[in-house]
Amino acid sequence: MSLPSATLRWESESWNAAAAVRLRELMSAELAPRYAPVEHRRVRAPQPSADEIVVTWIGYADDVPVVTASLRRLPDRHEVKRVFVHVDHRGRGLARAALGAVESTARELGVERLWLQTGALQPEARALYAREGWHHVPPYAPYDRNPFSVCFSKFLAPHPGGGAHVA
Description:
- The protein contains 3 helices and 7 strands.
- By secondary structure, the protein is an alpha+beta fold.
- The longest helix has 18 residues, at 18-35.
């Protein structure tokens, strides 16, 4: 069954909400085998704290959480964190929609530039960010210590006519 993003119910939730935690656990479990052969060379950055997270968007299909993305506020930048779509719901534009929801929130806050980090062994994520207008930048701290980090940045244009928009 195909599920377009328009049929999702979007909710702004906390970083520690059960649905967000579960989707991040699924993401970690999926990525672990990719990075297992190089785990000894990876340097992991500290995980976000709940206080740093401005918003975590969750997309629900029939009350089941299927997609998430978060906005993290740091002293010197805002980052997109943990864009993930449940495997059974991929190929429907949900990652793009979640990324758009985070970008929209950032615009509402007056953020002019966003940053994100992904991994060298995640070609689908790198392709998504490139398609969505993100530009590859050199790894920034603390990701610059990890040889598998790939970083992106994007300048945000204001919403036409102002106001918020959740994809």
